[in-house]
Amino acid sequence: MDLRRDLKEVKEKAEEWLVDHKKDILGGCYCLLCVSAVLAPFVRHRQKTVNARKRHIYDPSMFDSWELRKPLTNNQKLVIEQRRRNGEPLGKILKDMKVLKR
Fold first, then answer.
1. Whole-structure pTM over 0.70, yes or no?
2. 3-class state of residue 58 by DSSP
């Protein structure tokens, strides 16, 4: 019986607290909504730039960049690195691997 009474008291206190602090809770929700609305464009812009970096590859030796169909896999990166060490130009490697966007 004590447990049931204790739970009932806790429930009543929680309900009272919610009623007493309703304006504070709504104000906090409103603040969170405003902050998220302000930050959303920055987050979307960051995601676009990160995705753009993954879909472009730059060759500093030729001062040129290529647009890829999709981000390179780890195996593709290893193949590119190995062929670059053998002296092949990056553009030729990418064309041979057929990863360039048309």
1. no
2. strand
